[in-house]
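Posting here for the record, re: S-adenosylmethionine.
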Amino acid sequence: MLRGSGRWASQFKNLHKINTKNKPPFFTFSTGTDSADSKKSQPSSAPPPIQVGFTESAGRGVFATRRIGAGELIHTAKPIVSHPSLSSLHSVCYFCLKKLPNKPLFQRDGVSFCSQGCQNQSQDFHEIEKRADWSTFDDYCQTHGLKYPLLVKRFACLVISGFASASSLDILQPASLSPEMIPLMEKEFWLLRSTFQDADITAEQLVFLTKQWYSGVLARIRINAFRVELACGSYEDLLSSAAASVEAEGAVGNAVYILPSFYNHDCDPNAHILWLENVDARIMALRDIDAGEELRICYIDASMDHEARQTILAKGFGFQCNCLRCSSHQ
Ligand SMILES: C[S@@+](CC[C@H](N)C(=O)[O-])C[C@H]1O[C@@H](n2cnc3c(N)ncnc32)[C@H](O)[C@@H]1O
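Prediction output follows.
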């Protein structure tokens, strides 16, 4: 997953701007450090068959560069930041969110990992995180049912430790917080800042951590983060077009990715994001997709009725859905 200080550069190195003369501009992506599973489905050197471009009414979106068959694994993605849910803290790997055996072999500073590799890679943020006492911050998040501040906390640790730039998430669509969210955000911000200060993190190290930064990152994370639900079932089951209906065992955490964040929403999607054994995301085609067609995923529970879907999309993501299904009030 997150390997060494070069990873931020490499995430963005893979984003090649092409076709600069034509409007709208498109971006293509290479598979980078994709897992062995993805390499089964597509040649390792081949970029995924997608490009990011501009849609007519939904900002940027992801488009197919060739015909994609139903059930095809389009690409995989590693998170830029992830965090276990507080209820899963002791049952999943602190780094990759994989389910842990009853007696985890790799434990350090009160947290457990599924492997030595995950333990090593967590050093990027954990060296800073473990210096502070997070009990008040975590209790506050638990009491108020907040999950996104945990992602901001981990992201801040990555910034302090020098493994991420404070502007790494600026490429994601910005958003604003509603007036009701502002007091909570302010409280979280002061808790986060004072927790770092109490741990003797210097003012110089915390220079990026302003209320404005916190609020901007939190708002971006709110509309771009994914709830990670590990699927039950074999890889072969998931490669079938039944992927959208594969049962999940419940959320083990939340994560933010770059490329998956460019997928727009549709209540009758042609693509689906899923997780098998850990936080590495897989984007799969749910039906045949033509070259040039936009790929869209469903952000919410598609089984809800029209009104409920519109309410959640408006409140949670700030847009009114005009997909074909919504247009016919289904
Ligand atoms: C995760 S981002 C998707 C990528 C985004 N379009 C961008 O330019 O980065 C989610 C945001 O995209 C926009 N969006 C996604 N699906 C949409 C849709 N079906 N109709 C209108 N806007 C949509 C909304 O602004 C939403 O808050």
